């Protein structure tokens, strides 16, 4: 099974802390209008660093 | 790499990879973007080959995002984990024999200042603790003694990561590693203090757990190196593979180190402090 991080769009508030915690470039894309982050799933290595920093628990590996 | 050079002719644009076209359209060239804008521009580095949760790759990514002028920057690397991420980065990049990075950077900086006398060309050394503190320590120190106008960024993972976990001069005392089963029996090399003594005009010690500070330190180091002299930034980038912790714990380990032996520190000369105040708009009024 291919693992990647998934964003719960109801919990995400667009604080962007996950973006600065991700070792992989260009995985998180910030959507300024919706105030959300989007994930490029084919680039994610599912290390889980972003899930440990997300205060809103909006990110899950799966 | 200036945007003019990377922009393809219209008739050939369609055969280039999507990543390349995105870099031309949304890249950071010529814009003043930094760490706070990550996620809204195309980063100059792509698909690192490091282990999951690697601190070094996060350090490289954040440092590259903080470059003040990526189109006029030349990065010099040396073998080790730190160099993997540079080979697929869209900046002018040079690899060197192990440990020679500061000598090569000195030569390149001098050559660039002759070739482009009216333009600021930043030469940045980005290497690991092995390249800077162990094998290349003499060349690093001599470049500082000579006052070369280059920035040195050390990605300190406190271990020789890609050769299987040998102890490095930067490993903390007592650290048990794959190839140091009884623990390291001497102290971490004080490169940060040596930088101050050797003539660096600015130095900072940060961890990847504080990205804004990291960005500020890299930015200051590069801008000060343009005019004043050598600068040094030491970034703590823990290694989950050799230190045996879960990839998801990298930032927790970095944060804990930030409270213990890797607390944020900065030093600068008086001239550098004045220059920083002028650059960042916080120039204090002189008493009347």
UniProtKB/TrEMBL annotation, chain A:
Oxidoreductase recorded as keyword: no
Entry superkingdom: Bacteria
InterPro entries, per the entry: 4Fe4S_Fe-S-bd (IPR017896), 4Fe4S_Fe_S_CS (IPR017900)
Keyword Iron: yes
UniProt domain 4Fe-4S ferredoxin-type: residue ranges: 3-33, 35-62
Alphabetical UniProt keywords: Iron, Iron-sulfur, Metal-binding
Protein name, as recorded: 4Fe-4S binding protein
Organism: Desulfobotulus pelophilus
TrEMBL record, chain B:
Domain of life where this protein originates: Bacteria
Protein name as annotated: Thiamine pyrophosphate-dependent enzyme
Family matches, as Gene3D superfamilies: 3.40.50.970
Listed Pfam families: TPP_enzyme_C
Residue ranges annotated for the Thiamine pyrophosphate enzyme TPP-binding domain, each copy included: 89-235
Swiss-Prot/TrEMBL keywords: Oxidoreductase
